[in-house]
Amino acid sequence: MKEEILRVFSFYFFLGRKSGRTRTFFLLSSMAVLMALVIRTYRLAGHWTEDGQVIFQNFLMVFFLQFLIVLLGLFYGSSIVVEELDNRTLPYLTSRPVRRAAIILGKYLAYLSLTTVMLVFAVFLSYLILNLDAEFQAKDLLTVLRYSVILWLGLAAYLSFFSFLGTWLKKPILVGLAFGFGWESVIQYFPGTTQKLSVAHYLKSLLPQYTSSSGKLGFLFIRLEPTGPALALAILAGIILVFLVLACLLFTYKEYLFED
Amino acid sequence: MSAVIEARNLSRWYGNVLGISEITLDIEPGITALLGPNGAGKSTFMKIITGQLKANIGQVRIFGQPVWNNRHIFRRLGFCPESDAFYEELNGLEFLTGLLSLYGYDRKECLDRANRALELVELKDVSRRPIRSYSRGMRQRIKIAQTIAHDPEILILDEPLSGLDPLGKRRIIRLIREFRDAGKTVVVSSHVLPEVEALTSEIILIHNGKILARGDIHFIRELLDSHPHMIRVKSPQYRELARLLAAEEYVLNITFEPEASAVVFETHHRDRFFNRLNELVLDPGLDLEEITSPDDNLQAVFDYLVGR
């Protein structure tokens, strides 16, 4: 099985590198870098007084956590099966000597790798642009590494959930958009246990908690009743595992028909 | 010879629409052609025997094993789908090596096999061009290349000649025959009758999801006793020939083609007709320039069977 996953991974990682979609999403991720450059320029000109760390945390919350990882997860995850159906290339895969579960897992890993590159590139570069100055210390790199790992976990979880959605539904994008930018955006602000029904809740639980000095977007942490880090990690790992298993099972037993 | 593909009572519906109904057949090594109009059920049958679809009723076995989710069978099977679909970002060589890598071949083996397949379909020169720039015929040939690149024992080709120019068709027909000569099993579908005739005489006629007839084209023709055989004879003495044969009770109808100096006979008993024709050639010394059977082709058989 491992070898089969690796074969699918290699093919789709190669294919993904050449695809126009990868270029588009890489450009989209680079928006963070561009925004960081603009803000840094403003700061140098004295028009922006907030600390680089605080600005980056706002970036993290708004652009990376609430937008980019959801979007990458949605468009890559939901496409794992749907793109093969829309492009009618599914028979090329399902008539090869690889288990159907290996197709899902191989493509999942290929797309996770591609999106990780986009994410890490944007996170590191925007962090450095906003914070690299005379006071910059090596431990700051550990901070950005921690942020990257948390975001990566979120990306893996969304990718897994949307992979399942794409394996299950013919048109997963609308449902995915409603979940990613509707449910996830709203439910995390509900008090009590309801907020624990969102992936974002566990990601926010792992991030440094905001204080009064958390800048303009500190309100994004209101009502957060954080889950302990170990449990948050376990739940995120569980989400990744459960939805991947469901996607594999569904793809193994479900048959897919082209539109006509 | 034992059957390589065994289908038993295969039925498949798409909601209320019938795909195929109670298809039972054994397919042996050699070329077998599925013939029928669009929507007849050929593609559905092919998708079931290649494990792309499940039958609602019945079962299909290849080499004695069920097909659905059986990756061991897929190693021995090559499938050329009907749809004109590709990973358009790739070039021909990348497309083939990528798919070959799914078999677990190493990089060198993938390249060797891909190059061999590209040579066979005569696309070696354009192997580094993106598939999106390929003509319809080239796309069809690269699709066939991915079918044969891993040297399968069974080839399932859904409309493999569609979109090819006459030269391209000849190349692919030659290639398919080479596979037959190598002892492989080839199942090919088409709705274009001359294509099938050029490939094989072993045909399965499908219409409305059911098998109408199966066998050698001549054998099938013999089954159609209710439909007369047409025999066209071209002779400078065609009127005399018609007069001599008109008295025979097995000659049902005679049509003259004066501009071609020919006469068309309709008969239920082809053998008796030809025996008498031989006698007439030898005895009164009639000159015959050409004898043809205008309806002894797949189109005629198909038209008869579907009642056109």
Automatic annotation (TrEMBL), chain A:
GO molecular function: ABC-type transporter activity
Protein name: Integral membrane protein
PANTHER family: INTEGRAL MEMBRANE PROTEIN-RELATED, MEMBRANE PROTEIN
Sorted UniProt keywords: Membrane, Transmembrane, Transmembrane helix
Transmembrane portions of the chain: 24-42, 54-76, 108-129, 149-169, 230-253
Species in which this protein is naturally found: Candidatus Saccharicenans subterraneus
Domain of life: Bacteria
A GO cellular-component term linked to this record: plasma membrane
Automatic annotation (TrEMBL), chain B:
Record keyword Transport present: yes
Source superkingdom: Bacteria
Residue ranges of domain ABC transporter in the record: 5-233
Pfam families registered for this protein in UniProt: ABC_tran
Sample GO molecular function, one term: ATP binding
Database matches in InterPro entries: AAA+_ATPase (IPR003593), ABC_transporter-like_ATP-bd (IPR003439), P-loop_NTPase (IPR027417)
Gene3D superfamilies hit by this protein: P-loop containing nucleotide triphosphate hydrolases
Keywords, in A-Z order: ATP-binding, Nucleotide-binding, Transport
Family indicated by similarity: Belongs to the ABC transporter superfamily.
PANTHER family per the UniProt record, alphabetical: ABC TRANSPORTER RELATED, ABC TRANSPORTER, ATP-BINDING PROTEIN
Protein name listed in UniProt: ABC transporter ATP-binding protein
Source organism (scientific name): Candidatus Saccharicenans subterraneus
Organismal lineage: Bacteria, Candidatus Aminicenantota, Candidatus Aminicenantia, Candidatus Aminicenantales, Candidatus Saccharicenantaceae
